[in-house]
Every structure is written in structure tokens, then in C-alpha cells.
Amino acid sequence: MHNADWDDLRYVLAVAETGSLSAAARRLGVNHATVLRHVQAFEIAHGGPVFTRTPQGYAVLPERARVIDAARDAASAMDNVARLMAGARTPVLGTVRISATDTLCTTILPAIAARIMARAEGLRIEIRNANAHEDFARMQADIALRPTPHLSDGMSGTIAARMTFGHYAAAGAPELWLGLSGLLSRAGPADWMAGNVGQGETAAAANSFVTLRDMAAEGMGHAILPCLLGDADPRLRRRYGRFPAMDVPLWVACHADLADSPRIRLVSRHLVRQLRAHRAALAGR
């Protein structure tokens, strides 16, 4: 495939996956006219339209569905080439992007990053605060610190510690709960709340444990928090009895294709060692 064809195909795939020129432009970081120009160039070069316009946006013509499937396969292959090349050429020094939850980003990770950089002159660490799982196939992060029972397909990692959750409230807080919304609604504590807390017992909700901590500290209700957050806040007291303490593995992980990169291997090894030094705080002991 010629470079121009591949470039056009990226735009066609973005429109197919987002359903509109404007959404595709936002994904690719270009303007609306640029997307339209590449889509039209692809259609002219390959003998016909790929999309039909509908009131909802752009829809792939049924007879072109296999073209979009092939485009996805091509995009995946190009991403795989990029990852393999990155792993082969990555020196020990340079930038490593670490994705972590807001709990870790606002507590122990900055100090850990500082200690790692002090040991490796020329190493630059970029911390990405992301409760959502980063898209490693699109190279948005190099290493992830994730509290999760299992890693997703294509990921490789080490369990550095276990993150424990507990029940916390401020003195005098009402006997109401603070719910877990957004991505937190898929976490283990949310499953417990769904089965044990009635709808009328919930006062408010948030999609961030850091925000839930501050809401609980303001006396808005009871919250389930990582012990790393709750134990360190003098405004809160840990409660026992109703919520059974639960924990999940805390992984240091990367895409399997980058696991042998010297720089990523070095930083991952340091992260595991430093997180293990914080095992007691992570476990709520």
C-alpha cells in the first residue's frame, strides 16, 4: 500500500468508528476539511463511495463493511510494527509515561517517581492520571499501575502489592452512603454496594476516590475508599462491621511487546520495588 493510500485509510477508519467528520477530526487532531479531503481521495482512488449520509451522520455502506474490517486489521498491524520498533530501539534513558489511578497519583507515586529519576540520570517520567485504562495499542502510555484482578489481553506485568478498601466517615456524618459512579461503578466496592446498600441510602456519588474522600470528609456520608487514602486523612475514621474489607492486586504492567524494552524494564523493576516498600499503607495496616 502506498503511503498516501494508508494515510487516507486512517481517515476513513476514523469516520467509520466515530460516525461523523467532526468526531473523526477530534480523534485525529485535525480539522473537518482535512478529514473530508482524505475520505474523498480514498473514494476516488478506489472507485466509489464508502459511506452514506444519514441524519445521524456517516454510515458505512453494507457492501463496504469488509473494507472497514480490512482497515482495522491494517491499523492493528501498523500499531504492532510501531510497538516492536519502539521496543527494539528504546534506550535506557529517555521518557517513560506511567498511567495510574488518581489515588496513586495524589499519594505515593510522585515521590516514587522522584526516587527513580534520582537513580537514573537522563530519565524523564511523565505521570498520566487516568482511572480509565489507557489504550496501549495506541501508545498512550508505557507502563500502567492498575488495581485489578486480572490484566487485559496483550498486557504483561507483576503484582507489586495489594490495595485494600475500607469503610470511612467523618464524625457526625449521616447514615447515608456515597456511591461510586462512572468507571468506579465497575470496581469491586461498587458490586458490594449494589447488593448491600439500598437506593434510598445513597446521598451522592462521584467517579473518583479522591473526590469521594473529600466528600466524606465534609460530612456528606460514608464512603468506601482505598485505605491508602482513608487512613492518611485525619478528618476521617475507619468504620468496621458492615463493609467487609476487600483487596485487589496492584499491577505494574506494560504491553507485552514492550516488556523487553531496556528502559521500560528498568522503570518497571524500580516501581515494583518501591511499591512493595509501601505494602503496609496500601493494605491498610
TrEMBL record:
Domain of life per record: Bacteria
Keywords, sorted A to Z: DNA-binding, Transcription, Transcription regulation
GO molecular function: DNA binding; DNA-binding transcription factor activity
Pfam families: HTH_1, LysR_substrate
HTH lysR-type domain ranges (all copies): 1-61
InterPro entries given in the database record: LTTR, LysR_HTH_N, LysR_subst-bd, WH-like_DNA-bd_sf, WH_DNA-bd_sf
Transmembrane segments: none
Family as reported in the entry's similarity comment: Belongs to the LysR transcriptional regulatory family.
Protein name: Transcriptional regulator, LysR family
Species assigned in the record: Lutimaribacter pacificus
Lineage of source species: Bacteria, Pseudomonadati, Pseudomonadota, Alphaproteobacteria, Rhodobacterales
